[in-house]
Amino acid sequence: MSSAIELRIGIHEHHRQAAAVLYYDAFRGLLAPVLGDADRALPLLGEALDLRCALAATRGRELVGICGMQHGGRHFVALKAGPLLRTFGILDGLRRIAVGGLLDHQAGHGELIIDGIAVLANARGRGIGESLLGELERFASNHGLGTLRLDVVSDNHSARRLYHRCGFIDGPTSTSWLRRRAFGITSVTTMSKSIASTNAPR
Q1: How confident is the model over 53-110, as pLDDT tens digits?
Q2: Is it the case that residue 202 has pLDDT exceeding 60?
Q3: DSSP 123
Q4: Which of 31, 71, 91, 197 would you label with 133, given CA atoms 20 to 30 Å apart?
C-alpha cells in the first residue's frame, strides 16, 4: 500500500463510518455530552455527517485525516433533533439538544468556519494537519471567502500551535459557566486568518 497522503474535497461515502470514528475520538469530550457513549454516538454521528463539508486525507484506501467546515449555511455535523429524541427519549433528548446548542456557531458573510481537524494516531507527525489547512485555504479562496475562523479550547496547546504555525491569530477568549458545567471547558479562544479571495462570494 502506498504511504503517500492524498487530499480531496469531500469524504467518500465508503469512509462515512471511519470519519465518524475519527471525529468522535478526536472530540469525544465535546460530543459525548450530546451524543452519549461511542455505541450510541457513532450511528448518530455517521448519519449526521455532511460528507461534502469536509476535506479528506487518505493513505491508500485508508482515511487518515479530516477537516470539517461550515459555510453557506451548511455544516459538517448536521445533527437534527429527531434522532436524538428517538435515541434518548423526550426529556433526555431535549436536554442534549440544549447542551449541543452551546457549541453552535454560524459563519458570517465571507467566512468559513473550521469544524475541527482530526488525524489518525499512526499518521500524526507527517504534516497532515498543515496540509489540510492549506487545502482548506485554497478552497475558501476559490469560493470567494476571505476569512477562516475557528474556536479552540484555550488549554489545547497542541492545536493552538498548529493554527499559529499556519498563520492564525488569537482573537477573544470567552468563558461560560454553562460550557464549563456541560463539557468541563474553562475557556474558548476564537482564532482567525484573513486570506485573499480569488472569486466573488457566491
Answers
A1: 999 999 999 999 999 999 888 899 999 999 999 999 999 999 999 999 988 888 888 9
A2: no
A3: G
A4: 31
**Could you identify the residue written with the cell 454516538?**
41
Nearest Cα to Cα of residue 26 among 153, 131, 168: 153
Number of domains in the chain: 1
User: Is 55 part of a structural domain of the chain?
Assistant: yes
pLDDT score of 29 more than 90: yes
Q: How confident is the model at residue 197 (pLDDT cuts 50, 70, 90)?
A: low
Tell me which residue has cell 459555510. Answer: 71
Q: How far apart are CA 67 and CA 118, in angstroms?
A: 7
Return the DSSP state at 96. Answer: H
Residue 123 identity (one-letter amino acid): A
Q: Can you tell me which residue has the cell 499556519?
A: 166
Within a domain: 48: yes
User: What pLDDT is attached to residue 201?
Assistant: 46
Distance CA 136, CA 141 (A): 9
